[in-house]
């Protein structure tokens, strides 16, 4: 069983897609191959049932089955997204994941008025429902949730809840938030918080320079994220950014709102990890022109890597 995540966790936790066949059923063989591909690229861990994993389109039984399948397939630490409109459903799924060997659980603030007291009360309720032994990742993604959260409140929650050990930073723009959180830790008066960044990795070199520990996102070339983080942590920020820049056109293309998941799945299919690039309905479908654009970007990336 993998070790739980903690306040010094660093590296790349790749956000895993959920493969479907053309009928919309989960493709379990493709899920196995996808987990294997992720492991081969050198990632630190996996995050499943996130937004990229289309968790909101899965039934409760399907979510549990995905947890069971992935945790049986890999020895890497696995963080499980458990966000749900119902606190009871969230707690049941979280307990199931931890019982099966998850390394941590990821939650977002529930949608509603962006008031600090409401967000604070909700996260305290989540922590109480899950218990102190479940390490928590706070996903700060206001572009998706509609709930902005200040650095002050994130720190307040992390200090009040010892099990909240990691921030998935996806605020945009949000580089100053990373700086603010790290500045609070300089005198040692507050506990360190692990910070892994999302948004497709679009700003990863700058986030690492601000003090982030790595990435938690779903770019279809995880090795690019791994190598960028490794080079930065080895004290070679220029080399890290030079490598990252090779992938930037494709990474940027993946960040199109509403289309990014379809593009990522198309790439993963081309890489042999999944048999079908379908998203579960309702979801985007690529046109022949979309695929031709993607093919050109991939070909250009391969040429740059060869050079």
UniProtKB/TrEMBL annotation:
<comment type="similarity">
    <text>Belongs to the DapA family.</text>
</comment>
<dbReference type="Pfam" id="PF00701">
    <property type="entry name" value="DHDPS"/>
</dbReference>
<dbReference type="InterPro" id="IPR013785">
    <property type="entry name" value="Aldolase_TIM"/>
</dbReference>
<protein>
    <submittedName>
        <fullName>Dihydrodipicolinate synthase family protein</fullName>
    </submittedName>
</protein>
<dbReference type="InterPro" id="IPR002220">
    <property type="entry name" value="DapA-like"/>
</dbReference>
<keyword id="KW-0456">Lyase</keyword>
């Amino acid at each position: 069983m993998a070790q739980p995540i903690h306040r010094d966790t660093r590296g790349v936790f790749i956000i895993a897609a959920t493969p479907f066949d053309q009928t919309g059923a989960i493709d379990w063989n493709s899920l196995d191959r996808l987990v294997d591909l992720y492991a081969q690229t050198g990632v630190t861990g996996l995050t499943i049932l996130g937004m990229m994993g289309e968790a909101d389109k899965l039934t409760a039984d399907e979510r549990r089955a995905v947890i069971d399948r992935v945790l049986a397939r890999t020895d890497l630490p696995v963080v499980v997204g458990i966000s749900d409109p119902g606190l009871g459903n969230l707690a049941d799924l979280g307990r199931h994941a931890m019982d099966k060997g998850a390394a941590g659980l990821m939650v977002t603030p529930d949608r509603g008025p962006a008031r600090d007291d409401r967000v604070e009360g909700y996260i305290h309720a989540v922590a109480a429902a899950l218990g102190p032994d479940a390490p928590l990742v706070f996903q700060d993604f206001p572009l998706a949730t509609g709930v902005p959260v200040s650095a002050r409140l994130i720190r307040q929650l992390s200090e009040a809840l010892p099990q909240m050990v990691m921030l998935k930073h996806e605020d945009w723009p949000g580089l100053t938030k990373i700086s603010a959180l790290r500045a609070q830790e300089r005198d040692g008066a507050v506990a360190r918080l692990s910070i892994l960044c999302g948004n497709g990795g679009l700003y990863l070199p700058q986030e690492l320079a601000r003090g982030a520990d790595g990435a938690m996102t779903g770019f279809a070339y995880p090795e690019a994220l791994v190598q960028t983080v490794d080079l930065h942590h080895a004290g070679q920020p220029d080399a890290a950014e030079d490598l990252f820049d090779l992938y930037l056109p494709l990474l940027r293309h993946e960040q199109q709102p509403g289309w990014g998941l379809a593009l990522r799945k198309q790439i993963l299919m081309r890489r042999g990890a999944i048999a079908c690039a379908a998203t579960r309905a309702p979801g985007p479908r690529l046109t022949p022109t979309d695929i031709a654009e993607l093919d050109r970007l991939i070909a250009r990336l391969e040429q740059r890597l060869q050079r």
